[in-house]
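Section 3.1: Structural characterization of target chains.
Under the original work plan, the team committed to producing a structural model for every single-chain target entering the pipeline before any wet-lab resources were allocated. The record below documents one such target. The sequence was received from the expression subgroup and is listed exactly as submitted; it comprises 438 residues.
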Amino acid sequence: MLHYNFPPFSTGEVKRVSAPGRREIGHGALAERSLLGILPSPEEFPYTIRLVSDITESNGSSSMASVCGGCLALMDAGVPIKATCAGISVGRFTDDNGGREVFVTDIIGEEDFFGDMDFKVSGTREGITGIQLDLKIRGLNLSQIEKVLEQAKRGRLEIIDIMERCIARPRTEISVLAPRLVTININPEKIGKLIGPGGKTIRSIQEKYGVTIEVEDDGTVMIAAPNGESISQAKGEIEALTEEIKVGTIYTGRVVSVKDFGAFVELAPGTDGMCHISELGNGGYVKSVSDVVRVGDSIKVKVILIDDQGRIKLSMKAANPPAPGSELPAGPEGAEHGGHHGGHHGGGHGGERRDGGRGDRGDRGGDRGGRGRGRGGDRGDRGGDRGPRGDRGPRPEHGGQHGGGHGGNAGPGPGSDAPVNPEVRTNPSGEASSAGSY
């Protein structure tokens, strides 16, 4: 909205100041239309703009002066206009018979009175945004119009250069005295959640931050506040309240409830997710939920699943992966991992004693027969029979490879003519011992 005021004293007259006349309304409309072409969209700058042009002295085109001054005021106020806009008028003079024709740039009052034409052109470096033509003759041909527009362009570009020496571009921030206004878009299905039952939610936000909130049916939310701090806080709460929870996103939420099977975490006002006990901690075994989190704690969680009913499954482990090389905590998980790890690697050495040693045990069993046990001799043969297990070739396990190699030397296979470990001798206590390596 542009208000154009042309008081009588601007032309040296003494008159009653009254309502705008036809001339003031027309000149104000021209200036307003010329500046509309460079204004940002309501989505980019959702403010209502009011420009006031007070003409204090007039001896030329006051409407084009309103365009130049209005553009400078918009840039100084921080309105993100598209380009610098300026305007200028061109007049026309001829002799009595019309043989000579002169076009004059930026005519003054006398030239406007005695001339044949007042051609006003406003625009930017890229193009024209407004035109108004006053004629005292029957008309203009195309060649005359082309000449006028070219002459007006040269003058307009010179004025823009002078304006940009004063202020080259719009200020990045609006005035601290101006109220703040922010527009955001939310999912229309979330409007009910923002308003709340009976408007309870939206009223609480307005009272909490001292802002004014307007919601459109298409999901457009306009927030107005007296300062930037309160509006940013209100905007953050509205965005959190209406946020679309997506799988893979990491949130910092507050624990609102603790159960035996897990903890419920508030991701946004009115939106909770469940973190199962198996997803708590940093990778170790968790015996009790209360060992890791308590009601009121702020924890970092990752959304790993949203089922068909909209229930949200969270993971604290996925949001806080353990550091490389960190040790496992004590507990069943650590014991299980350690047992498996040790069994796998220790099996190699155990296999070496298992096959090779059992070959020697066969010999010891043979000596035990001398102690009066009839079964001892059988054990010797069985021990010898087990020796050839080393000839079966390498086993898949690491331990089988080593054990098979040593066990193959423990004793002869079935049908062999060699005696069963002839180097076995009996010590004074009656127990058998082997001269070989055990």
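The chain is about 35% helix and 20% strand.
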